[in-house]
Structures are given as C-alpha cells and as structure tokens.
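Protocol step 4 of 5: obtain the predicted structure for the target chain.
Materials: sequence only (see below). No template structures provided, no constraints applied. The aim of this step is simply to have a reference model before the mutagenesis design in step 5. Sequence pasted as it appears in the construct record:
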Amino acid sequence: MSRFDNTEYQPGMPLPSRKETHARKKGKSKKRDELKAQEQQRLQEQERLQEQQRLQEQQRSQEEPQQAEPDQAAHLRELQTAREESRQQDLKAERDAAQLQQLNAIRAETRRQLELQSTQEAAPRQELQAAEEQVAAVTAVLTPTDVPVDPDVEEEETEPVIGKWTYRLLLTFVPILLLLVIAYGKLGYVHQVPDLVRENVSAYEQGEGFLILKPWWFGPPVYKLDSYMSGPDTTFPQYQLKLHDFSAIVDQPIVLWRFQNDFLQP
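Step 4 output (structure tokens):
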C-alpha cells in the first residue's frame, strides 16, 4: 500500500509523508498486538477458571464418597445395635417364660403336697382318737370301783380280779404307752443336713442333729437329708421336689432341740 492509498485523504489536503504512514501502521500493529495480548490473557484466565472448576469438582467427587462411607458405617452400626437389642429382648422374654413355667409347676406341686399332707394328717387323727377311746374303755374296765360286789359272796370272791400292783402298773404303763405313740407319730430326728439346706433354711444353720415336730402323723422317725441330693448342681426348688411328701421338714421346720453332735453318725 502506497502512501497515496489513504481513504482519509481529501482533495486539497497535503499528501502524508512516508514517516506518518509508517507511524500510523506501527500504531495499528501495536493495537493489534495489544488486542491479541488481551485476548490471550482472557483465554488464559478462562482456562485457569476452568481448571479451578475442574479441580473443585474432582475434590467434591472425592469428598462425597468419604462422607458417604462414615454415614454408611454409622447406619450399619445402628442396624447391628437394633438387632442385638431385639435378640436380647427375645432372650429375656424366653427366660421369663421359662421361669414363670417353673414357678407354676412348683406351685402346683406344692399345692398337691399340701392336699396330700392334709389327707395324711386327717387319717392319723382319727386313728389316734380311736386308740384313745379304746384305752379309755380298757381303763374304765380295769377300774376296781366298776367291778360289781356281791354281798352274799365270800370275802375271797369279792377281791378284785386285778391286783393292786397290777392296777398301778397299768395306770403307769398306759399313759407312757400313749406318750410313746404320740412321740413316735409326731417327733422326728433330722441329721446330715447338706449345705444347700443350711443356706436356705435358717433353722438348720447350726447343729448336727435336730429334733423336730413333724407336720404329719407317724412316718419314718429319722430323716437323712443329704440322701435326697441328686448332684452338686441341685437347686433348692429341685431339692424340695425330690423330698416329695417330706418337703415340709425344710419348708417350715419346727425344731424342738438342736444337738451339737450327731449321735447316729458312725
């Protein structure tokens, strides 16, 4: 382009010199360079912003799984805790049901034993009353005043059938016999008491032999309590069931005398 190719030139104006044309071109080139530099700077800024956004997105994508993992672990722990609590509640309910069933069985057995005991006590009472009536009848028969005296009979015939000493012996023997019968029917001797009974029955805590008042009539006079132990793991309710009809001697014993030594121990 020559210096004459200038669109800004008007007729009558002086022609621009080469120096002015060169300066004008240089100014335009400088502006273009500045525009290019600004454009490059703008592009670099955009790239930098895009890079920052990309890094932020990567960081967020990395943080989200890290945050999700603790939440998931906490949720799993909560589920495990809930399952454990549910299992504990089920086990507790099963234990309560088993204990209730065992208590009901013990109550039923105790009720049956009480009924049997009352039946057994009623029969000996009737027998004792009948025996007392028979003894009273025999005593009345043996009384000398009840023997009729015939005045027309000689003196040898008016003597009592039973002699005086025999009568006295009978008066002494009959009460003693009654006392022995009552003692045999109501008294019992308990010995060799196991530790299980001593721990649960305060009446047997001290002493080796015990004279007790039986809640029933007759039955065995001696009770060896350790013979009813089925094993070292026996519980007190099981031991009571093992005694059957004699469980009253450990339920509510009436101890009349305690012996420091067991005179039946070999």
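Step 4 remarks: Strands lie at 187-191, 209-213, 222-224, 255-259. Residues 153-158 have pLDDT under 50 and may be disordered.
Proceed to step 5.
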